[in-house]
Records
---
Amino acid sequence: MDKKIKHCEIRKGRFMNIISVVYDDGSVDDGIGSYYPDELYFDEREFIGLTRKQASDLMDERDKAYLRS
């Protein structure tokens, strides 16, 4: 079974935000993704309960939608 995200923190940078998470097994991933806040928006709550793959898919879909707009 894939571990699920139980806590998410979006570290806001000057130009780029970085998404860090803690999984339900206690492991930490200090950068599952990053994005430009002037192009995309994510809320930390969106990642809770997702696997790393699902979180990556969410970021990819949001990025594709932005590029199509």
Note: The CA atoms of residues 18 and 34 lie 4 Å apart.
---
Amino acid sequence: MKNILIVDDDIETSLKYKKWLEEDEEGFNLTLINDPELAEQNFKPGNYDLVLIGFKMSVMDGFNLYDKLHEISKKVEDTPKEFRVCFMTSSVINYKALADIHPELGQECYVSKEVPKEVFVKHINSLIP
């Protein structure tokens, strides 16, 4: 079973995504945390196949959380140092600007919050081998 962590302070949207993924036949084990600081405190490297992070959150933006989770992951021995991430955004995506900030992330690491269920689930399935 694939393990996914969803972190977004938009409770309604994150619950919608959790429901959509729970209904998918691929079978996902989902953890939902609506507070990025709590997600940082409870992050266990190697536990997740994918981390979905809200791009804009009130306490901490998605990139800051990603950087903090990445640092936590690098400090733990005998676990994968990298984890797949996908940023969820309701904004227009400027891929060039984002590539300047995090060149290791490709365009597939972003998903619009406006996409229909089928597109969202297909995208998430494509990110997890």
Note: Strands lie at 2-7, 28-33, 50-54, 84-89, 110-112.
---
Amino acid sequence: MILLYGTGRAATHLGHAFVKAGVQVVGVVGRNEEARNALAKVLGTKAYSKRDELPKADVILLAIADDAIEKVALKFPQSEAVIVHCSGARSLDALEPHADRGVLWPIQTLGTGEPIDLSTAPLVIDSNTDHARTVLSELAKKVSSNVVELAHDKRQRVHLAAVLTSNLPVFLVREGQRLLRAADLPTTLLEPLWRETAKRITELGPEAALTGPARRGDIRTIKQHLDQLADDPDLRDAYALLSKLIMRAHGF
């Protein structure tokens, strides 16, 4: 039985994954009444405010922003439940003073839209006691066939790699679309490119999938691009630095 604390994207995707896996969600706790009622309704459970008497649970999952974990954990009533956060970057210490602490972190983008299928996504767990480890391992294996146990230092490295792999490229897609809109061009022109790039990275690996002027050492084209970004110095600097890193990695 899980008590879900939070109503945002992580809480929504994980909540749906628990229900799909047949794990009982005994309640949703949240500050915003409308949000907690809405999430509780779709998960088929009850909504609670922080002031309510909360139901008993085997796991209390804090699906909240990283910076809020320590504050919420400190104020959350201590119980026999394993208290868990879903951050790849924060340590188990953030959940003190609770006796049984753990991490349940899906290595997957948890954005807006339809609930994501986590059944094959890497699901990272960590714990501070044998009891917490047993409870989390059983829970994680119900949700995903790909469960990995990683200590904090390893999770931090994976989290950094995940940001480089997912968050930064998505932001660059946004910037590319912004440049097209500024020139009255449709952003859909980039969609086939993005889909094919993602497919080739998965099938061939990033070394074989990488193309473009920096990969070819095409200095003239790079200079032309930098000239086009003269009025956008931050993006210009980012383009120049990334191009430099690519060229250096490929011997130019």
Note: The first strand starts at residue 2 and ends at 5.
